[in-house]
Predict the 3D structure of the following.
Amino acid sequence: MVTLMDPNDPQEERVFLALRRLQLPHLRDTLAAVLSEAAKEQWTYLEFLDQILRREVDAKQGKRIRMGLQIAHFPCVRTIEGFDFSFQPSADERLIRELSTGNFIAHGENVLIFGPPGVGKSHLAIGLGRKVVEQGHTVRFTTATALLSVLGKAESEGNLGDKLIEYSKPRLLIIDELGYLPFERRAAHLFFQLVNRRYEKGSLLVTTNQRVSDWGIVFGDEVLATAILDRLLHHSHTLMITGESYRLREKRKSGLIRSRLTNVDPEQTQRETEVKPRKSQTAASITDNTKA
């Protein structure tokens, strides 16, 4: 609790009350230190005003970001700055830096990150999500398995509509690990409902280890898979990452794996690299490329 520097000073009391009413908690908590620093540095009136307003804005921004990160439910701390582009040169650094600006959020554009396990898809998804939070947008992170479990439970309890609204509210919804497990037919329909509800209204960021030509197997329905892909790929940015798993690299460094192992079949890699990371591709065009 903040105490007055001089409880008998009515002017000081009025200042504290005004700061509370104006909801300027940082300035209220640091007023004594700021006044002392101002006297020591002999700030002008304008310099004093600039300092207190800048510090209050920074404090509010920091609090907002902390709350946004908490609401996002990121499973761990990952940043774009911490991603090793030299180890994964197939990751389009220019595009990732562009996405880090968050401009795609304003247009409701999607981001799809393709690649085998361990190449950094989740790292990039979390890192981009943190950037979006820092820019003032709401973000929600979930895995595909957890998402479908929640939606399935909501449907059985009769409140699917409420859950779909909940997952439609964030400006960016991140769905990690799509395709690691195949969907039951009903779960695939629930996923379509969510994608359709967010279509051109809110951005989706999806990571997957499956080529789009295999999404019919993942969803158990070629027609439904095509409908989902058409909505995801319309107004989208795609990233294709190939290369060695970070986890395998660490095992190799520790001596557990003697030779350089890769988790990507060379012929499959050649086919996948034909999928150019570019904006606004159609499901049909990417499917054709990955089958080539």
